[in-house]
Specification:
The protein is mostly helical. It has 2 domains: 1-69, Alpha Horseshoe (Serine Threonine Protein Phosphatase 5, Tetratricopeptide repeat), CATH 1.25.40.10; 71-126, no CATH class. It is built from 7 helices and no strands. The longest helix is centred in the C-terminal third of the chain and has 17 residues, at 108-124. The chain is elongated, with a radius of gyration of 15 Å. The termini are far apart. TPR repeats lie at residues 40-73. Keywords: TPR repeat. This is Tetratricopeptide repeat protein.
Amino acid sequence: MTTEGTVEAFRRAEQLVSQRRPLEALRVLEPVISEVEDKPSVQLLLGRAYFFSAQLRRAEEAFRRILEFDPSDHYARLILGRTLQRQGRYNEARAQIRLATTMQPHDPAYQEALSEINAHIATKGA
């Protein structure tokens, strides 16, 4: 695939994820992954597509890979936390979301995510 084709496929996959059509996005991403698998932006899009298609273990792998590239990526930590939360792994989720919130303290979405998981743990336990 040419660089132009890779970029075009990536952009198309972004649109599909935004439209909540993750399975189609994953199909479009297949050739992109083989070309530029180690790019954090590709892993993020891949992880989001897996997340929205409820392939949570795969999503977790993609988000953890991003954090190998850049441990300070607050959004990857947030969405990894959400992924762990959906798997019922609340203490692990809280640790990731807490880190993300520390890195991005003025974003209400991060604060809400942390409050939500803290409330769950307080009422139902981990």
